[in-house]
Protein 1
Amino acid sequence: MFSSLCRTHAPRLNRMFVAKQTTCQTPEDQCKQKPKTAIVMLNMGGPQNIDQVGDYLLRIMTDRDMIQLPIQGKLGPWIASRRTEEVQKKYLEIGGGSPILKWTNSQGTLLTESLDRCLPETAPHKHYVAFRYVPPFTNDAFDELERDGVERAVIFSQYPQYSCATTGSSLNAIADFYRGRSIPKNIKFSMIDRWATHPLLAKVFAERIREKLLAFDDDVRDDVLILFTAHSLPLKAVSRGDTYPHEVAATVANTMIELNLKNPHRLVWQSKVGPLPWLQPYTDDAIKAYAKQGKRHIILVPIAFVNEHIETLHELDIEYCHDVAKEAGIVHIERASTPNAHPTFIQALTDIVATHLRCGPAVSKQFLTRCPHCVSQRCHSSKEFFKSLCSEVPCRDTYIPSIPTIVMTEPTKT
Ligand code: FES
């Protein structure tokens, strides 16, 4: 990991590594020490077992940041309970639970080990998982990092593309946690709210696509349709000005540039819930329509998920790649893996956090700017809260990114 992550700055980083060894010996020894820097990994989470499915759905359906229903207090619980059995069956078909906690912990462990090597002055780093709808919850993560007595906490969204419904909801949960209790004065907080255009994110998606292209016959490989698919969003949220659709499109464009192939591609949307109109075209409809147009060799690329969960393992693999594709007469369909613990992805996470720790803005102006048609008092208070929570820290110059970084936040301060 060290050699691949830091190869372009090996002499300098080798010096740092030696310096760290003097005091800390190995990453294992560091684990036993009190952590100095917390990396709080935000995500929605997924049920570990089918007993958690009911509560998971209930929390989603009653979260107005995620979904807005009429008479939500009554309709939300009713929908959750009506869907529980059907969703439990889906989890049973993928092995009985979501692997999202397993992948997030693997990513967190590899990321913090890598940071310990590259940034000894902020080490030891420790990751904390903060899920929105299943344990470990946001509150658990913040209770733990306060108990650990960290000096610095980086709130790191694991959604590369920002949406007020996903990252926004997780951040509101942090604001809720600190409502009515004092903010620890000894911790410096900062936030990474989006990273849709990081070059190494495009690189890992391109590598995942190349892996699957090899499965196609030579004579069709150049014509395989690359169908990028992301979780859809209600059109109401799009019209309000949510940045998610254009950030997803930016990741797609960067991935195609990185891939440097002439294959056709499109961006389509999956996982619509409820009767209201959502962003289209839907992934299953697109597969059927392309089959009719004679495009029968397809790779599905989940472009907004960084680890496997129900939407990839069930919706894409079982429902679309098997059932829908078979019915539509698709000749060959593959699904690209999510980044998971791919070394390039760990390198991406390391570069994003290390650059932020070195000299990132404590909170981005992009985050602090509300959607043009947002009228939510909750959004307003949340942004005010983070403006005061996240404090600037002096720039450090130890870490030098190995690639030009294009993150959709503030320009780096010098
Ligand atoms: Fe986007 Fe309020 S809905 S900032």
Note: Residues 164, 240, 242, 370-371, 374, 376, 379 surround FE2/S2 (inorganic) cluster (CB under 6 Å).
Protein 2
Amino acid sequence: MELSDLTIGQAGDLLAQGDITSTGLTRAVLDRIAAVEERTKAFVTVTETLAMEQAEAADHRIKAGDARPLTGIPMSLKDNMSTRGVVTTCSSRMLEGFVPTYDATVARRLYGEGAVMVGKGNLDEFAMGSSTENSAFHPTHNPWDLDRAPGGSSGGPAAAVSAGEAVYSLGSDTGGSIRQPAGFCGVVGLKPTYGLVSRYGLIAFASSLDQIGPITRDVADAAIVMTAIAGYDRRDSTSIDYTPPDYTQALGKDVRGLRVGVPREYFVDGMEPGVESAVREAIRVLGDLGAIVEETSLPHTPQALAVYYIIAPSEASANLARYDGVKYGYSAKDASSMWDALEKTRQEGFGPEVKRRIMLGTYALSAGYYDAYYLKAQRVRTLIRQEFDEAFQKFDVLVTPTSPSVAFKLGEKTEDPMSMYLNDIFTQPANIAGVPAISVQGGMVDGLPVGLQFTASHMQEETLLRVSHAYEQATEWHHLRPNI
Ligand code: GLN
């Protein structure tokens, strides 16, 4: 096996035994980036010098007997997480060349563990999209088929993990942006409970929905990364005051007697037949493992997408008001007045999807429409939450497809925003309810990975990891790597 294909667990063992060094491993990953990045375009910025410095420091730490599970392991961060001294763009012209003066809490925690950062991953501009084609710089290509989208908005981080350009990544998930690209790229993506991982230093999209989480090659790695990044942060006012467990303790436990619900609303007309049959087969595997599988219903699921596409743009329109060309970021040069400067800055700095969201959100929040759209969406949000609460009285987890299709072709949905939005149909309900959800590889259709999603109740990440690990260990899918 190539060094760049190792999991965190495998690399950690080899580092601990002294069979490899972090500098050697980091060099191998940087070489892999040099070899494939021209085809995948997973990164906005590759941080080679920083990575080699961090790798050397990690080797010293390992020698000194002070290693942690992530010490010396190369990773990438989605480029909407602030990194001190490293350009952080959100894949937007608005923040092109922007260098933060502080680290996001997740970056600080990973650095504290001795992590090695090889680069900042490409995304849809301000994390708005499902294909990474909304990046102002370049689209990312799916390592399984370069003509296809890697999903989005964390398409760069997911493609990097899939293609061997990072051992793991952090993504952010507002309506599916960790899980859907993980599903499309055949890797694991976990969206934690809202408030479990600090959002300090994450450039805000929709603050009541955004969460940071791991993108990894297997479930055990997701548990390792979660253990490092979860937990209270006084700098994030929505952070839950909770001391998280060692999530790796959830691994290796069987699922006998675990109650698994299959909500019928997640098997919709128009979904790809191959996806449905892969998910049905996965459900059979869970039954064979001793889980008690039963059909159930989440009746407001069909309304969730509309709720999401009112609440997310509304919050985005408020969050993005700060880009005025005055304090930081892009600033239009040839303006005749303050208002002219503001208009031109936003006209030139934002791409079309971001403008669409700002207009949708501003409309939904405006006097006269607030009650009809925003308030109503909030009310339906409460219903959706209650529906999940009720479901989790009966079930430990819900199992569904992550997305209605496998990776679609680049360009296939760019002209039709509605068909792009429909891609989030199965992922955004977990954000609306604030509950955790994970996507693992659940099969292959025509050479492309299928995402299998598990959802659990608030703070039940251990149950999610337990069931997805049991499923993963019973199947072979997680061993597959794209041939790039
Ligand atoms: N695809 C969804 C959107 O465009 C979700 C994005 C995300 O989770 N950041 O809003």
Note: The two ends are 14 Å apart (CA to CA).
Protein 3
Amino acid sequence: MKVLVCGGAGYIGSHMVRRLSRDGIEPVVFDNLSTGHREAVGDAPFVQGDLLERDDLRALFAQYRFDAVMHFCARSLVGESMTQPYAYYENNVAGTLNLLQAMHEAGVGKLVFSSTAAVFGVPESDLIDESHPRQPINPYGASKLMVERILEDAGRAYGLRSVALRYFNAAGASPQGDIGESHEPETHLIPNMLRAATGKGPSLKVFGNDYATPDGTCVRDYVHVDDLADAHSRALAFMATHEGAHAFNLGNGSGFSVLEMIRAASDVVGSEIPYDLAPRRAGDPDRLVASSAKAQRELGWAPRYTDVAEIVETAWRWHRQPRY
Ligand code: UDP
């Protein structure tokens, strides 16, 4: 079996590539290397190209016969999406449409799509399940929701089978420590904490301590990147027996505040994480915690990393000696 991994040089995509290879499935990576890293791909076949270039896609689908596609390419920063909405809609929506059309022309009928908790907007309940209203409050979430809608239409019109996986906060790294999260500039909490710990980054800024949470800092649901990869493998199997478009929320089901994460990281690292209080970051809801009951029920998925310290520990193995 051969699976096209769009964005396979990125953080989550590279962990997926490794998982597919381990399962005896042949990944082919397509990535424009705008934020990904060639070194993260390992030995898998690699094609450099861009979803916005239809000729790149034509050549790719002419070269290989794929059984399915996993699509991780996206711009994914909420704040940036507020100031560069055209770039987000172009890359995330128009780029995905090009991919879907290329799949259609090549007769490839299965897609696992990276979606996000940001499709829900301001949470109306403590645990967000799939019945929660989808009312994104930023272009990033809106772009992902548009694709979810396109997938529903494509299922009806063309028989496309798809699974949208809505990640909450992807975290951690391969326990081998040789692939991990590496963005420039880095905006995410765990890498920023660990960079502050190694002295490679500035003191951490805690964005806001006046949220409606027990300690005033934002609460998030951190789910290990290998658990996300496991959900993709299960989604691939699920599509063999399920037609149409499906969506699942993926999280650990428990929330941790920024200050709790700093304490967990200090324990893992063995020293205090230097931090300063800073103003709120635009677009951050107080609390985002998933109910993954549907994924557990229908995909048989359950996160293996339920201890946040263990998640941070795997990230720390990477951040002590990042290879790229
Ligand atoms: N955060 C922070 N300092 C940072 C990065 C993030 O206080 O340097 C906070 C952020 O405001 C949010 C949480 O940590 O409440 C997780 O943010 P991240 O960017 O990692 O993920 P997001 O929730 O935006 O997907």
Note: Residues 78, 169, 187-189, 192, 204-207, 218, 220, 258, 281, 284 surround uridine-5'-diphosphate (CB under 6 Å).
Protein 4
Amino acid sequence: MSNRNVKQPSRRAFLGGAAAIGAGVVTSSTAQAQAADPLIVNPQDWAQSFGDGVDATPYGLPIEYEADVIRRNVEWLTADTVSSINFTPIHALDGTITPQGCAFERHHSGAIDLKKSDYRLMINGLVDTPLVFTYEDLERFPRENHVYFCECAANTGMEWAGAQLNGAQFTHGMIHNMEYTGVPLRLLLQEAGYDSSGKWVFVEGADASSNGRSIPMEKALDDVLVAFKANGEALRKEHGYPVRLVVPGWEGNMWVKWIRRIEVTDEPVESREETSKYTDTLEDGT
Ligand code: MTE
């Protein structure tokens, strides 16, 4: 890039800076304050030529100097990354919204690649009219935006058997908080005409594991969202692109990603994913 029209900073400005430092201006490092800081007194490369033009990154990524703010996996925790978890770098974030790019991932059989144009969502079972929605069909329903946190049932698990790993990322990083955009599940169930004998919905993902989960109808009609955006942008692949379920306040494993089918049933299905794992003992011991 040419430096033709770049104006050089005046020498007086730098000398002025040096004089101020010499006069004892307090900086974060008193030792440095005594010497002339080259970052202040010398002309810097970045001020002597043009920066990037507006289209250098049509969809921006974090700058390379923030490369340590990333999700982290613990290799010995699982046999393979396709059925594993990584952790949100909560120690390095501020505010309340988690950027999608570093929000923890939990997959039972890997994050799948599913195009919007190949997307289908079926509602069947105890309904008047079984329906299949395309992505465009979902977009035609009234949408809502809500901020919800998602927490894996295993969050803090790294401490259940005594401290195993240092750092908040590993002990408490199975959590993220995002603003979701989606259609209330209630509206889709109403469209299909759910039967009053329908007491549960069984939701299933399009991935190999399917992560099928049973949700009581009362919850399904309350605040469950069929979401297609998070923090204003399309869901990332790893978070269920193009469409996932958001089940506010209920453990992360219910938030079925790549959701493909919702069956209205009269009782919980007790699928593999909700009996072989994610079960809690009731007070009576069952
Ligand atoms: N949905 C499908 N289809 N497949 C999965 O493996 N994992 C579940 C849930 N939904 C999973 C899924 C689990 S156990 C959790 S904790 C959350 O997704 C994690 O969501 P995230 O990967 O967006 O953080």
Note: The first strand starts at residue 72 and ends at 73.
